[in-house]
Amino acid sequence: xxxxxxxxxxxxxxxxxxxxxxxxxxxxxxxxxxxxxxxxxxxxxxxxxxxxxxxxxxxxxxxxxxxxxxxxxxxxxxxxxxxxxxxxxxxxxxxxxxxxxxxxxxxxxxxxx
Length: 113
Known about the structure:
The chain is mostly beta strands.
């Protein structure tokens, strides 16, 4: 059974940083492409960033240059480093395993002064 557990969300001021973590179990992580999505109130869930098994990355235009996705296979963990946060980054952030269509429970990120 696939399980994805996110952590690291919280309240941060504009311009601040947060690092989200997602620990995966029930999969061969080193063979799994992974992704982060987010969903703001009243909006559709959108792709934020993805990473392949060889660590090729892809980003939404809105976060390019500010967010970095990475992975540590020995820890079965994918990270999302978020810098220069803006109020429009406020959302619930979800970890996603495309190979199985599995989602984490989400972690709230709120950017506000």
